[in-house]
């Protein structure tokens, strides 16, 4: 009897991943650019959570079909492209008050991915499998690109003198945008084609896992449907997060907290699909997949956001402030140093994961009490 019940429920479980993204998108269309009362914010939050879970499901379907590291790349790039569109839209509407929006969003993404998602993935995998094992070549290459792009885009503007304040001159901004695109393109080429084996999961014995040993991959039709629904779910996640942001902003102001806390909360919401997907991979001892998601998201955030805002700055009237302040410079340096020490041994214990989480906690604390 129970077996028959589960058989009947299985199609319903499969259907919710189709229905929820469509309903979430409909809710987004009905609430976009409108003031929302408290009960509507609650409904929007429920659909936001459902869209996040649906996005993770469809990302896993695509990853199962195309294999690693392509699956991680699809999710990271999809989230970032939508996030970039949201940033440019908000900058166009915000004027001078959105001058630091791109900087704050990119830096929040770097801190959350390189410390939060990476640290949690290591803790989850190491607690269950004693140590978290990954490929140092691929992870180290991603970390080197993140350090270079973050320095060129977010650190140098603090020290240049061609423009007043932590801003690039037009020529410097063009260089930073071009360098970001070129380096990100080279990283994707390395990950997808030239050295794909550096980004595949490895076992405790160091053996590369080419294919997962589980159910047969989905059909081409099912994969295309999941790809379309992944896009719908991610648009809904970012749009609904934007919709609840005024409520979050009001709560932050009522609590007497700095406005930068809003950016942290929105970044956490937008990065939820990658976080859940990374933790699921870590539980299966596929730590390299988790690191591909974390570091790939950080790279995509810098490599795509900076060129986009550079182009947008030609028609946006407000200033574009990219340079980090002193406390954030310290946190970025600490993140890169600790990340390097984590990567070199090719395996990590819960201690290394806890160190990264401590850095993220320091970032959140400074956002609350700068």
Describe this structure in a few short sentences.
With 370 residues, this protein is mainly alpha-helical.
What descriptors fit this protein?
two-stranded antiparallel sheet; 2 strands; globular; 12 helices; 370 residues; mainly alpha; A middle domain of Talin 1
Describe what you observe in this structure:
By secondary structure, the chain is mainly alpha-helical. It has one domain (71-212, 243-368): NCX, central ion-binding region (A middle domain of Talin 1), CATH 1.20.1420.30. It has helices at residues 2-31, 38-66, 70-94, 101-129, 136-155, 170-194, 220-254, 260-270, 272-283, 287-312, 326-343, 350-368; strands spanning 132-133, 347-348. The chain has a two-stranded antiparallel sheet with strand order 1-2. The protein is globular. The model is unreliable at 1-13 (pLDDT under 50). Residues 39-190, 226-367 form the Sodium/calcium exchanger membrane region domain. Its main location: membrane. It is found in: Membrane.
By DSSP, the count of extended strands is 2
Shape descriptor reads globular
The CA-CA distance between the termini, in Å, is: 60 Å
What is the subunit organization of this protein? single chain
Strand arrangement in the largest pleated sheet: 1-2
Structural class: mainly alpha
State the helix count.
12
What is the element string, with H for helices and E for strands?
HHHHEHHHHHHHEH
Q: How much is the average pLDDT?
A: 83
**Rg over alpha carbons:** 21 Å
Stated plainly, the CATH topology is called A middle domain of Talin 1
CATH class category: Mainly Alpha
Total domain count: 1
Helix content: over 70%
**Second CATH tier, the architecture:** Up-down Bundle
Keywords: Membrane, Transmembrane, Transmembrane helix
Transmembrane segments: 12-32, 38-58, 70-91, 106-126, 138-159, 171-193, 222-241, 261-279, 291-316, 328-344
InterPro entries: Alkaline_pH_Ca-Antiporter, NaCa_Exmemb
Pfam family, one: Na_Ca_ex
């Amino acid at each position: 009897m129970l077996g028959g019940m589960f058989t009947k429920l299985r199609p319903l479980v499969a259907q919710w991943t189709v229905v929820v993204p469509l309903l979430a998108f409909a809710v987004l269309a009905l609430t976009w650019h409108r003031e929302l009362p408290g009960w509507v914010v609650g409904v929007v939050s429920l659909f936001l959570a459902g869209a996040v879970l649906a996005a993770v499901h469809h990302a896993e379907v695509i990853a199962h079909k195309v294999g690693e590291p392509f699956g991680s790349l699809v999710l990271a790039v999809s989230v970032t492209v939508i996030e970039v569109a949201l940033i440019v839209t908000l900058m166009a509407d915000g004027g001078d008050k959105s001058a630091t929006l791109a900087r704050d969003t990119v830096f929040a993404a770097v801190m959350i991915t390189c410390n939060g998602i990476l640290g949690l993935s290591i803790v989850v995998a190491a607690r269950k499998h004693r140590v978290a094992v990954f490929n140092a070549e691929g992870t180290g290459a991603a970390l080197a690109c993140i350090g270079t792009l973050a320095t060129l885009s977010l650190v140098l503007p603090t020290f240049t003198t061609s423009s007043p304040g932590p801003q690039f001159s037009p020529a410097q901004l063009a260089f930073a945008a071009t360098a970001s695109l070129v380096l990100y393109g080279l990283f994707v080429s390395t990950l997808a084609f030239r050295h794909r084996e550096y980004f595949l999961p490895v076992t405790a014995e160091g053996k590369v896992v080419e294919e997962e040993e589980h159910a047969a991959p989905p059909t081409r039709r099912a994969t295309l449907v999941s790809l379309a629904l992944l896009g719908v779910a991610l648009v809904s996640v970012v749009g609904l997060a934007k919709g609840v942001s005024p409520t979050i902003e009001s709560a932050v102001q009522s609590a007497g907290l700095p406005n930068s806390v809003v950016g942290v909360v929105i970044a956490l919401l937008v990065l939820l699909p990658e976080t859940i997907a990374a933790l699921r991979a870590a539980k299966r001892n596929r730590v390299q997949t988790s690191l591909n998601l974390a570091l790939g998201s950080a790279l995509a955030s810098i490599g795509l956001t900076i060129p986009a805002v550079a182009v947008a700055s030609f028609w946006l009237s407000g200033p574009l402030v990219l340079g980090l302040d002193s406390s954030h410079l310290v946190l970025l340096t600490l993140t890169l140093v600790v990340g390097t020490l984590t990567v070199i041994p090719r395996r990590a214990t819960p201690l290394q994961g806890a160190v990264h989480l401590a850095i993220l906690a320091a970032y959140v604390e400074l956002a609350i009490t700068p």
